[in-house]
Amino acid sequence: MKTLLLAPELFAADGGIARALRLYLKALCELAEPGGTVRLVALNDSAISRDQLSCHSGPRLADVEACARSKARFVRSTLLRARKTDLIVCGHVGLLPVAWACRILSPRLRYTLVAHGIEVWRAFSPLERLALRRAHQVWCVSEFTRQRLLQHVRLEPGRTVVLPNGLDPAFAPAESCSDSGPAVLTVSRLCQGDRYKGVDLLIQALPKIRALVPGTMLRVVGDGDDRARLEKLAREAGVSEVIRFLGRLDDETLNREFANCRVFALPSTGEGFGLVFLEAMAHGKPSVGADAGGIPEVISPETGLLCPPENVPGLVAACVAALERTWDVEAIRARARAFSYAPFRDRLKALLPG
Question: What is the pTM of this model?
């Protein structure tokens, strides 16, 4: 089978969608049978090097096109490659009309959509609805995302399936050190458009958390155009001295932050899945998340605590309980292993058309 993966980006951004699609590329390359090929077209990447692809591809990767944010180039490149394609895996609903146009030109071609989360929790344009109804399948990262999508478009039974994200096999947890104190870690883009992540709620909660668990520190990984507001909020709350804004970190440094924290917390209301919780679990760290979106499908009672969404007192209570509880580290790591790469690849293999 000849497969074409369409991605908004693979390396131009390092959010959950890009990381998930890098895993799709790796799995598709590994699952391609003799004579099969995989091609990639990425909209926003300016260039994709061999070094970047070394851990996320394979010998079946025949062609890569980085379109440098040019929509016209993306459409042309996709239409050209679709002529020799059996299956298009579309990595974002915003690209789906292009896949639909390819099927009009090549009726034998089939296409699927990867539905990540918040981008499909909304009303669709007429063109998007038409493209969704013509899709072979929609692979949803969580049952919550599947149900939210179906609220906005009517699809035949069996056309939507849940395919949870997996951890990158190249992900290597750092060795945990001895407990250096009650540190809470959060990892998020600090952008105005991503305030649903709830970093401001953690800042508001910190004074009360410290009153109950003295010495608690908050460490914030990430950057963006909302960072200055968050830093101001920390000063106004009187906790700027016990919050560290660390900016963007490389993978090795980020893994050390996971290893050295006591609790990971992200009270987001917009996670379709929550890959970052799995990264915390792989380090044996309990998580605190909002009881919203796909998070309850990732955090189990053995691996963390859920709090009411957008509720500071509830967040305080969950963080305090998580900081004070003695957790079964092996049970937490076992949960992460359930979402490792091999099960993801096996689930994907079962969904690929024969």
Answer: 0.93
User: Are the CB atoms for 272 and 293 separated by under 8 Å?
Assistant: yes
Q: Which CATH architecture has domain 183-337?
A: 3-Layer(aba) Sandwich (3.40)
Residues of the chain under the 50 pLDDT cut: none
Q: 213: part of which helix (H) or strand (E)?
A: none
Task: Enumerate the domain spans of the chain.
Answer: 2-166+340-351, 183-337
Q: Are 165 and 23 in contact (CB under 8 A)?
A: yes
Asked if 223 contacts 256 with a C-beta cutoff of 8 angstroms, the reply is no
Q: Looking at residue 14, what is its pLDDT? A: 78
Q: Which residues share a beta bridge with 61?
A: 38
Same fold, 2-166+340-351 and 183-337: yes
Neighbours of 327 (CB within 10 A): 16
**The architecture CATH gives domain 2-166+340-351:** 3-Layer(aba) Sandwich (3.40)
Cα–Cα nearest to 126, from 86, 103, 153: 153
Structure-block tokens of residue 25: 């590329």
**For residue 54, what pLDDT is reported?**
87
CB distance 109 to 86 below 8 Å: yes
**Per-residue confidence (pLDDT) for residue 179, from 0 to 100:** 65
Measured CA distances, 185 to 202, 208, 230, 277 (Å): 10, 17, 15, 11
